[in-house]
Amino acid sequence: MASSSVFSPKFTLTSSKSNHIFSSTSTRSLGSFFSLVPSGPLQYKRDFAIAKVASIPYQPVNQEYLEEEFSGHGVTFEGIGENCVAKMELENGSTASLMLPTGLITSYKAHMWHQGTLELLHTSVSEADDEEDAIIQGGISLPLTFVSDDDQEAWSPTTWSLHNVRGSPSDSIKIEMISNDSEGKIRLKHTVILEQDMLSSELHVSNSKSSPLQLFGGVMGHLTVSSPDAIYALGLEGSSFFDKKPIDTEFVITPPRYGDKSQPGYGQVYGKMTLQALVSTLRELNQTNEGVAQGSISSYESDEDEEEGEEDDSYKQLTDEMCRIYTCAPRVFTILDRGKRNSMTVGRAGFEELYLMSPGSIHEFYSKYAYILVGQTAMLKPIIIAPGDEWKGGLYIHNPNL
To answer: Does the predicted model carry a pTM greater than 0.85?
Structure first.
């Protein structure tokens, strides 16, 4: 991969504060997560727009050095061009993979009750225009942007350095990565933790600046599913939300015609279509999508009408296209996939907003668009980190199927 870019919201400075802690232990359970600080009423901004920051070339990763310095603890390294893949593997069969220097988590295979493993993350690999590099999207990514009164421009982490590897394959494995701004006054640590029944992506931000630091963005996770038509979100009833246009980042997957109500099959549910209608719809989709550029969508328009509402369904089916930011939602909820007969529990800490996006069910089963995007974010309202303070937050995916 030649370059990287992440989104940067167009923001207005506000005064707010968030200082919840995402604590980690060597072993955690779903029950222990409920002891985190409960969510409460949230004051939020309604201005949210998307822009890209300048691309920064990646520096080649020295695989031999990483193997010599960090091998063991259940982690192995494999070089792929100028990138490197770090694979974490537990004795029970659960594995996770992440790429350096992008920091993208590309895989989480969870150990299941039938003694096999099941991939829970959705990643897409396609050929770049120059036919030399590969475009890797999906997985778990960190579209983050920081701004303070000290700087004229915002800073976004684009490359990550491996800092430490700890743990044991018999229990849990931790990989720590760091990324600093050019002045070294913003220290950002990303810790990926693989446990026997959980994958965590934790952030630790230290502000050494003389002014408050605002954090926008969050942790975005693509969860692989059979089809959005078979997916149900449990536990969101009563949550307040805003309907939004999907964000545009380097790693987020969005159908090229998202929101186009004229496209074939829009609004139809595969389970309610005849076989002939299904075949016809897939054929038309392949024809209309032919030649459409992949990997990006139009920038969010701040003057676009947005719908505010309250979730009224405790067993919400994600059949239709949707993109919502829940401003008041449980810190833990469940994704049920009836197609795979599987479920995942998704939780957050530190972040107040829940981002939920479904590409809709007009796409082929088990295709590039067979996923649900879940994010723990600060998009409508930034997280404020005072001078000299630290902040922790993150996302976790719990596997209850052991």
So the answer is: no
